[in-house]
Design goal:
Aminoglycoside 3'-phosphotransferase, Chain: A, domain 2; 2 domains; seven-stranded antiparallel sheet; five-stranded antiparallel sheet; 12 helices; globular
Length: about 450
């Protein structure tokens, strides 16, 4: 977590800005989908940077400190978080911006003025694109662009309304800007990996066109602009349509397996790989076991299955070798794949699991981790059908692995211990997530837990 630094500005006397904002943010911030500290009251705020991009348009890096430690089963949660906020300030908020309201300041330099989320303001969103079109520095912020890419002016912005851990703006159905909300020092994999894949000539991933970062207090990636795949649907939407129409999805799953293998092959060329001998596999198994035990404490329904699930991890610990580890996607599922009509699959969102530390997300992993994530996604889709259609999921899983093997020369099913362990680890993660956020969905991963515990 960056250490607090004197707030930096390019205009207004923002050193007292927090006096105006803190009372409003105490109410507004915990209600946001991307706020990671739910269940842990905010004890204090600290401004790390404050930059005026335009009169009434402010960029903030805000550190939140929590009054309660993270739960024992959530070791990834730090005692403090850093968030990126883009806020607007007006005397009066027009009705069209009512959903963006944060509140009306009653004290400090903004007393009597209205504060709102500027990403919902087309004028502010347009300015952000202009900063990316014309690279340079604004205070501690650095805006950069691939000189080979032309970004036209005047693209109309719209904020995507889907629930996610970040905020995304689409400009004229031509580019999409992902603004990272919870930020950590370092290069975000969602910039690092697509940029490396572009240099490898891998066309499965939209290449970054522009990005912005801060160099102070530490270098941190703040947002990435990429081409928007107009007319494409994500794999989750396509899978549910297949289930609703009672038609097979095996051809699509096979091609998706090929796409995953293409990405893995390119990443193996772009970054160093690591051999996984017995000491490394033992560490992998130990980390999975630790997550299992912690989740069983948080979700009592998991406890009866722990011995059977632990057996999957023990099997990995006993392997003399688990092949190689490399950079991977880290959070692969049907929603992270896009396809327009019968065209090729594209893979997006290389950020990894945003709740995990950045250093962990950038660590080499066995490619089977991504495969397991996609297999679990097929199960989720099949459980969304009525009646539930496990045969559909089984056919998709087999076709996906076959497509992966056809392109990579390595069938994930030929490493059953490793595949089962990563599926189990993913299902355990799903149990914790659903128990916290969507209790009605808990039976979906629990059905997988029952199957995997008896495998």
């Amino acid at each position: 977590m960056p250490k607090a630094a004197p707030p930096r500005t390019t205009g207004l006397p923002l050193t007292r800005l927090l006096t105006s904002l803190a009372p409003l943010l105490h109410e507004w911030l915990p209600r946001q989908r991307w706020f990671a500290g739910k269940g842990r009251p905010v004890a204090d705020f600290a401004l790390l940077t404050a930059t005026e991009l335009l009169p009434g348009f402010l960029h903030l890096l805000l550190r939140t400190e929590h009054s309660a430690p993270p739960p024992p089963h959530d070791g990834a949660a730090p005692p403090a978080d850093c968030y990126q906020l883009l806020i607007g300030v007006r005397d009066q908020l027009p009705p069209r911006l009512a959903p963006a309201l944060i509140g009306r300041a009653s004290q400090g330099p903004l007393a009597g003025r209205t504060v709102y989320d500027a990403l919902q303001d087309p004028q502010s969103a347009g300015l952000l694109l202009e900063r990316l079109r014309n690279p340079g520095a604004v205070g501690p912020l650095c805006f950069e662009r691939d000189p080979k890419v032309t970004v036209p002016p005047g693209l109309v912005p719209r904020l995507l309304g889907v629930e996610q851990s970040n905020s995304s703006l689409v400009y004229g159905d031509t580019f999409i800007l992902k603004v990272f909300r919870r930020v950590q020092p370092g290069v975000n994999p969602d910039l690092e990996l697509p940029w490396a894949l572009a240099r490898q000539g891998c066309d499965r991933v939209p290449a970054p066109a522009a990005w912005f970062r801060t160099a102070e207090p530490q270098e941190t990636t703040l947002g990435v602009l990429q081409p928007y795949l107009r007319g494409a649907d994500d794999g989750w939407t396509l899978a549910l349509a297949s289930l609703a129409d009672k038609r097979a999805f095996t051809d699509e799953a096979y091609e998706l397996g090929r796409a995953t293998a293409d990405v893995h092959l390119a990443l193996a060329d772009a970054f160093p790989t690591v051999s996984l001998g017995r000491p490394q596999t033992a560490l992998i198994a130990a980390a999975m076991t630790e997550r299992l035990d912690a989740t069983a404490q948080a979700v009592p329904a998991l406890a009866p299955y722990v011995p059977g699930l632990r057996a999957a991890f023990d099997a990995v610990a006993g392997l003399d070798s688990a092949g190689t580890a490399q950079r991977v996607h880290g959070d692969l599922h049907l929603g992270q794949a896009l396809r327009a009509g019968t065209g090729p699959w594209s893979v997006i969102d290389f950020e990894g699991e945003p709740s995990r530390p950045l250093a962990e997300r950038r660590r080499p992993q066995p490619p089977v981790r991504d495969v397991a994530g996609m297999l679990r996604s097929f199960d989720y889709a099949s459980c969304s059908a009525r009646p539930v259609n496990p045969a559909w999921a089984g056919e998709c899983r087999a076709a996906y692995c076959a497509g992966y093997a056809a392109r990579s020369g390595r069938d994930p099913r030929e490493s059953p211990e490793l595949l089962r362990a990563y599926e189990t680890d993913k299902a355990v993660y799903e149990v914790l997530y659903e128990a916290r956020h969507r209790p009605d969905w808990l039976p979906v991963p629990m059905a997988a837990i029952d199957r995997l515990a008896g495998a």
